[in-house]
Specification:
mainly alpha, two-stranded antiparallel sheet, elongated
Length: about 230
């Protein structure tokens, strides 16, 4: 399965047992964690050689699960253990059944024994039916959760990025710039005015203010998806 599929799977699962963003982040990260053996490998030759090795085995899975539990509140660890385990297990299941033409070695490096699902399910069936169909299903469920909770999988990287992305995607369809009337892509953190690219300035990475200055001063900050977190 591709990275996006694993990300959506983990984020969907995280809603099964937690309303806390930190716990949802932990569940989602575990669902993508095994791909550490591919994300940081540069070059197609080395990537092909190392992907599905040191991140895709039971030893890494046990270690990353244990480390994750250490960062959670003691009173929540036992409650979240099944959910965290399910997220981690989902990665291996998807890799086996969705991209099963690529072998997986669960006992690496102690053993080269591998699981190759393409020996059972034809490769073209996995590529063009299972993978695409499952990705569309995951995307549909993810969109439903975004609409319902007003948050996206990007929340695992920080609420500021999540809110910035939501505004950038949705504002052009429903708001105009308070200064010039052009389609708005941003919203001022200070006064709540909607802004186009010519009338916004960044403060930090994802916080936006009016350019040159707010039309209405001392106005309360806009209410948005932060209140639902």
């Amino acid at each position: 399965m591709n990275f996006g599929g694993h990300l959506m799977t983990g984020w969907i699962l995280s809603h099964a047992g937690s309303s806390n963003v930190s716990e949802r982040r932990a569940v989602t990260i575990l669902a993508i964690a095994p791909d550490v053996d591919g994300i940081f490998i540069l070059g197609p030759t080395h990537w092909r050689e190392w992907h599905r090795t040191f991140g895709h085995n039971v030893f890494f899975a046990a270690a990353i699960l244990f480390i994750t539990l250490l960062f959670l509140k003691k009173g929540r660890r036992l409650w979240l253990l099944p959910l965290l385990s399910a997220a981690l297990l989902s990665h291996f299941i998807l890799d086996i059944f969705v991209t099963g033409w690529w072998s997986l070695m669960p006992l690496w490096p102690l053993s080269d024994w591998s699981i190759l699902m393409s020996q059972v399910i034809p490769e073209n069936v996995m590529k063009y039916y299972i993978q695409i169909g499952l990705f569309v299903f995951l995307l549909a469920v993810t969109i439903c959760l975004i609409i319902r909770y007003r948050r996206t999988p990007l929340e695992i990287f920080g609420s500021s990025l999540d809110i910035f992305f939501q505004r950038f995607v949705s504002l052009p369809f429903r708001a105009r710039c308070a200064f010039c009337g052009a389609h708005a892509f941003y919203q001022c953190e200070r006064c709540g005015a909607t802004l186009c690219g010519h009338h916004r300035r960044f403060v930090g990475l994802f916080n936006v203010l009016c350019l040159p200055q707010c039309k209405v001063n001392n106005q309360a900050k806009p209410r948005d998806s932060r209140s639902n977190r």
